[in-house]
Specification:
8-stranded mixed β-sheet; L-fuculose-1-phosphate Aldolase; 228 residues
Length: 228
Amino acid sequence: MRGQPPQPLDYLSQASEICEIGRLAWQRGFVAAWDGNISCLVEDDLILCTPTRCSKGFLEPHQLCLVDLEGNQVAGSNMATSEIRMHLLIYRHAPPVDLVRAVIHLHPVHATALAICHQTPPRGQLAETELYLGEVPLIPYRRTGTQEFADVLKPYLPDRVAFLLANHGAVTTGRNLAEAWAHMEILEQACQVALVAGLDRQPQALTAEQVDELGRLRQNLRASTQPK
């Protein structure tokens, strides 16, 4: 690394790829508003990631952030995604490092529909799902952006590459950004096929306490500065 502190544009190739995946996700309806976050390891101890409260459909490379493996933001004019703790935990606990160098978290409609039903794609129905994803675990609900939200994923690492987050969305990993994105597409298609095929399902609501907690968070967000 050169003498000056690293900047997102020092990793223009990866930054441009993150922005392109963000646009694809937005165009495909995998995200809405400020949904989702994307990251990749650009050094063994440095992560390039999307900023908080920015539409993934309109990101530019200079808007991205650099974060070290301790969670310290080292560059970027915008604040890193509030869910960076989840990315950090995956990078730390999914060895060897060469197998996980990118993490994508989105809210695809069909994958999220299964996630609110607390179900995952049935095993043994699609060859592509078995070949590229294997088992897709359902991760218990925890409030987004918290350390608990990240920690609940740990028991499911390092052997899986795709996850459904109960009442939330989906996460995929890969050896690079292209592979992590491909895993997300495969996961969403598997969930869509399961729903079209008539998977027995029943949506599972958040508890009253969880809804109240989100309500308090919403009030805090409304009282804070408006998104950029």
